[in-house]
Amino acid sequence: MSLRTRLLANLPFSKNELNLLIASAPIRYKEYSIPKRQPNKRREVSQPTPEIKLIQRWVVENELNKFPIHESARAYKKNVGLIANVLPHKNNRYLLKVDFKDFFPSITNHDFRKFMIGTEFSDDDLHDLSQILFKADHKTKTLRLAIGAPSSPLLSNILLYSLDSVIHDHCKEIEVTYTRYADDLSFSTNRPNLLTSLYENLPILISSGTDIHLTVNIEKTVHTSKGNGRRITGLTITEKNEISIGRERKRILNAQVFRFKNNLLSIEDIEKLKGYISFLRSVEPEHINRLIQKYGESTILALQR
């Protein structure tokens, strides 16, 4: 049974509607930008139309979930959060952080089709999947993964399985811990000077692990150590090798809880604060007790989801 037949049997589209949606899927995106953490920088986001999102989600749940994801990949996994990306590094003294430039758009439909050679999908299926999963880049006249498509995260993990394997195996040989959270690669060890040579060899490891044209963002490369502060994907590893949200985030959080207690937050900000309290409970639950002592149990209970 072809992919298109399976889609017709499971989604609320007629044959003509589905044919039109697949044919036009790469251009059915709304584009906008959001602020980055860096000052005066913005991230381009491409949001698929609801119909294309529905098809992409069905493909993720029924076609892509069967492919393996390497244990080193920590993002976009069910019941796996940011803390799982930090825990393996917490007892290591030296840390190297590397970032891929333009991660999702670096992955093209040609990379996908090459990866899928030898799978159960026919040429027609792969054509339809390329249309459904990739966005048209009008500048380069190519199809690329979109930041904002619900299928892009899982697909990136699938396509980087070989790269994760190559880097993981190399790191294991030289006593380095490796994890990847989307485009953020983290390496740690207790052996001095080892991460410098690893960084120099990283382009070779990348080229041997994947044909995807991935480029290291030199501006975001960070070498650090226990004495200079270790932060991975927004979380801090303290001098005592404990995982924390960090002093600055605690300061902001305390201010928000104070504003909530005094009825100074909007409904939207209250929902954000509730989400962050929930996140805090999973990362640094002892700080919840400090908030209770400072602002009262009733205040913190009101922020529990």
From TrEMBL:
Catalytic reaction equation(s): DNA(n) + a 2'-deoxyribonucleoside 5'-triphosphate = DNA(n+1) + diphosphate
Pfam families listed in its UniProt record: RVT_1 (PF00078)
Enzyme Commission numbers on file: 2.7.7.49
Domain Reverse transcriptase: from-to ranges: 15-237
Cleavable signal peptide: none
Keyword annotations: Antiviral defense, Magnesium, Metal-binding, Nucleotidyltransferase, RNA-directed DNA polymerase, Transferase
Record's keyword annotation contains Magnesium: yes
GO MF terms held by the record: RNA-directed DNA polymerase activity
InterPro entries: DNA/RNA_pol_sf (IPR043502), GrpII_Intron_Splice-Mob/Def (IPR051083), Reverse_transcriptase_msDNA (IPR000123), RT_dom (IPR000477)
NCBIfam families with a match to the protein in the record: retron_St85_RT
Similarity annotation: Belongs to the bacterial reverse transcriptase family.
Protein name (record): RNA-directed DNA polymerase
Species of the source: Undibacterium flavidum
